[in-house]
Structures are given as C-alpha cells and as structure tokens.
Task: structure prediction
Amino acid sequence: MSFQSLLHTAALESLQQLYGQSFEATDFQVTATKPEFSGDYTIVFFPLLKKLRRKPEELGNELGEKIIALFPEAFTGFNVIKGFLNLQLADGNLVQFLKENSNDPSYGKKVSNGETVMVEYASPNTNKPLHLGHLRNIFLGWSMSEILAANGYQVVKSSIINDRGIHICKSMIAWQLYADGATPQSTDTKGDHFVGDYYVKFNDVYQQQIAELTASGMEKKVAEKEAPIMKQAQEMLLQWEQGDEQVRALWATMNSWVYEGFDKTYNRIGVGFDKVYYESDTYLLGKEYVQEGLDKKILFRKEDNSVWIDLQDVNLEEKLLLRGDGTSVYMTQDIGLAIQKFEQYPLKKSMYVIGDEQLHHMKVLKAICRKLGFPFADDIFHLSYGMVELTTGKMKSREGTVVDADDIIEEMAGTAAAHTAALGKVEGSTEEALSKLYDTLGQGAMKFYLLRVDPKKRMVFNPEESIDFHGYTGPFVQYTYARIKSILRKANVDEQRFEFSVSTENLFKLEKELILLLENYGSILDESAREMNPSIIANYAFSVSKLFNSFYAEHSVLQAESEAKKSFRLALSMMTANVIKSSLKLLGINVPERM
RNA sequence: GGCCCCGUAGCUCAGUGGAUAGAGCAACAGCCUUCUAAGCUGUGGGUCGAACGUUCGAGUCGUUCCGGGGUCACCA
Result:
C-alpha cells in the first residue's frame, strides 16, 4: 500500500473511532504536503468541519493525536494549520521502503491483469516518407503501449497501412512517366524517400499543367480535373481496382520500396508492431454488416440506392455507409476493421492514436458501432493529439514543406555529437560506442521533446532552433542516470545483491523527499495509463532527476558522514537510477551508462 | 453557424476544487583542488484571455463573451 493510501485508511479509522459515524471519500482529501510547510502528507479536512460542527484546530489536533496513537510506527508528528493536518512519516518507514525496493529493476511494474489491449499507431500512407508529425504519433503510440504493459496489460501494437488509393497512384504514374526505370538501389536512395520524390514530382507536373490550361483560358476548377496527369492517375486507380496485373505489380514493387524505408526508420527509433493491417486487405470489410444493419432496420436506403445511418438522436448527422453504386467509404472499412480486431483478439480496449482532426470521425465510428449493437463500442478509445506545425506554417508533403523524420533523427544525433565534443567527453571511447551514444542522446532529446507536452496540445516546431539538451529535456534525465552509474561503478556495488545497513540517523530533507517521490512512481504509472498521457511520465522523470541533482550537489554519497549513511545513499541512488531507467523506457528512451 | 480542443511569466509548458500559482528556456549574480558543471544555488519576471456565478475555498466547476485551431465529404 502506498503511503498516501495508508494515511487515507488511517484517517478513516481514526475518524470512526473518534466520532462513531461513517465517513465518505469526499469528507477529506489526502495530498502531499507543500514544501513550504513541515510534514509529508496532508489531510485536508475542511468538509468535515460542517459535518461535525467543530473548530479547525480542535478537530485537527484530535485527529492528529488519534492517528499517531493508532499508527505510532507510521507517523511521528503532526501540525494543524486551518483545515490542513500535516502528518510526518516515520523515517523508519521510508528506510524500510527503500530497503525493500532499491535493487529491484522492475520496481513499480504491475503484475499481469490478464487483459489485452490493442494500440494502433503510425498508420502511414505509402506514397511518401515519414515526417515530424508521424514521429509524434509513433512515439505516443509506442509510449502508450509501454505504459499499458507496465500497468499489467497484454498489449498488441498494431498499424493500418494505407497502401492503396489515389495518393499511391500519383507516385506510381509519376515514376512511370519520369523515372526511366530508376530504383532505390540504382539511385542509392532510401525507398520511402525515393517514392516520395515521385509524389512531389507528380504535384509539380500537375501544377504546371493546371497553369498551362488556365493560361489557355480554362477555369481553374475545370483545369484541376482535366490536367492529363491527374486523369492518368485516376485511370490507374481504376485499373488497380480491376486487378490489372501490370498496375498491381508496379504497386507491389513501389510499396515494397516504401516498407523497406519505413523499416529502417522504425528500427533506428526502436519501435515495432505485433500486427500490421493493410488497407488493400481491409477496404472491403464492413460491407456484410451493412446488410445486417439493413435487415435490422438500423440502416436505411435512399432513392439512389445509397445506404445511410441516422445518428441525429445522439446529436450527430446522417452518415453514408455505401455509395449508390455499392462501393464503400472510409467509415465502412473502419467499422469492418474495428470488428475484426475484436474478433481476432480478446480485447478489453482498442486504442487508436490518431490526430485530432479525426475526433469527429472517431466519435461517429463509436456511435455507429453502438447503434449496430456491438458491445465493444464503448471499449474504443481515441488517443487524439494536436498537429505538429512549423513556424512557417503547416507541413505539406506534396509541397516539400516538411521536417523529414530521418533528417531530424540524424540531425539530433549530430547535435549530440557536437555537445559531447564541446564538453570534451569523447576521450577513451571507441568510435562505435560514441556513435551509439549520440543516437541514444539525440533520440532522447527528440522523443522527450515530443512526449513532454500534453498530447492534445498542438505543437509548433521551429526548424531553425535545434531541440535543447539542457533543462527539461531527455539528455538532462539521461545525464542524471549516467552520473549515478558513475558513482555505483566507483563504489563497486553489485546492484543485484546490494543490501544496506539501516541507518539510525535522521534523514535529510532531500533524502526524504526523494524517497517519497520514488514511492509515488506507481500512482504516476496508473495516472498516465488512465489519462492516456505519456507526458505525465516525462514530467515525473524530470522531477526525479531534478531532485536527485539537488541531493547530489548537497550531499556526498561516497564521502558520506558514516558508513551506514553511505550505504543508505548508495541504495537511494540505485533506486533513483532504476526508476529513471524504467520511466524513460516507457517513453521509448534508452539510458547511457556514461556520457 | 453547430459541436470539440486550446488560452497560465518575454518564449515553451506543469498545475487529482485546497495553503503564498510552479518548472525549463532566455536575462542577471554566484558555485568546478571534493561522487561527471549536459549540473547546482539565488534574483527579477503573473489582472491564470474577460466578466458573472457556484463554493468555507476557483487557474481548476458552470454560464456568457473574446482570441487561436479543428471539424461538420458519396476524400482518405
């Protein structure tokens, strides 16, 4: 049981003994004591004053005395200010807690709860390489998966690849027209970039053709439809749908180039998937449920034979599910895939990491599933996040105004190298070890930067300013870890077997605060899963590092006042390192042993 | 226009209805013969977008308004 819930229980019991009536959770709150007051945890008991008709000082003192009388080993002192009762935890408690957990690398991790959740993320189109916006999505998805796993869930990481449609045909037609048989191999280009270049090429030609047509007197809107290259792309999409062998072959080839490129990026940033769905396999799903819905009269047909669902009773609009010609729309296949996921896995939750421009779409998806009578409708969760924009405006692949994922990953590693060189910390390491370090630090900076902000807030990225390595950053947390490891190496402790002798000396303020913060890790884990918010973890990892660095500056570990104290501080350092390492892992960030 | 999200220090952001609203960056002043200065300590900087309301208590809850964004496709 956590210290906080221990106090909650103690307070409930004390109140009952004192006043002989039952109390509810809303009668008082237990919070961490603000640093400017003495004490560790605070009972806020304003609401009780009315209920019991007592003065604050009286009630506070009675309650404080009762708690200490009932739990003398846990609490050693208290003070009352207005409606706040500040309790002091016994140092012995904290030392005992540290003793039990300091050398447990999986401290905080919950045991399996037997429930499975799916997290769908990344979900790229196959006509262009990944950019910074995708990275926010990917890191969020990966991080949420890790957080849920640490909370005891079995996690299935999934991705739906948008591998068909007009956008792919644009790259394909441009390649056919202008590549002259070039391939990623022949041009020494990463596959996704190679295909993306032809997507840009398509758009260049398209714009030029529109300009020519409008110059010869055609209206712009007509020109946009009549441009020859656009017509060719549409023709190609038609051929794809009819299963034209040549088109399908080209499509398969170009997609394979893209996948090869994506895999390189995924590998570098250390993410992956347990289940990959392809839209070319799923885009016909959902149709059978339309027939079922029609039979049950949940759906209806209009004069033109199109099929709709009426959601006006839940404050949404009428939504089309099948066109008049019987073809399906995006929503139809999304319903089909949603169903398939629950059929394939025993899911407790199905989570989608998708940008907030699709909030409405996901709301409608849930509403339709509910209406069609699927009980899983309420187990669908949309982790929506704000767009990443640039100081120069929105990122648009077809206009080339994007921060490319591979570029920024490489750039961050370069920045890490520059910082390291400037600090003169490159001696005595192999080329290989250094390159690995730079990648760890660069990615630490980038991942932390993208995850430290509440997902629902949109972000503006300035490509002119590189991501920071000081202050509230990944490298700051990583640095704290490396510092601790350096101490532990010098002390020659076996981290797996280390046991410290219990110190009878009083704890210093910073020591106490640090233990309390480490103790809080479990509830932070809960909260980040419940709120679907990795920034809570980032925030926490920073707080732990910040506090440890203060402790480090104030107290010496290796030159401690006594052997017992040294041993205690080694344990405290070890546990801090463990918590930093596991919380960063939840963000997809690795820790360096030295830096 | 309807609905949703955001608005907190110059900038980027924290802040389960509780005490004097906190960090980082930027600025300024200190701290490396002592465990890694990618660090630590301190100073300055606020009408929490505005008003009204609920409450013992509001940055937090409600209403209205202002500003920014998104969305309301037989696009994906």
In short: The mean pLDDT of chain A is 93. The radius of gyration of chain A is 30 Å.
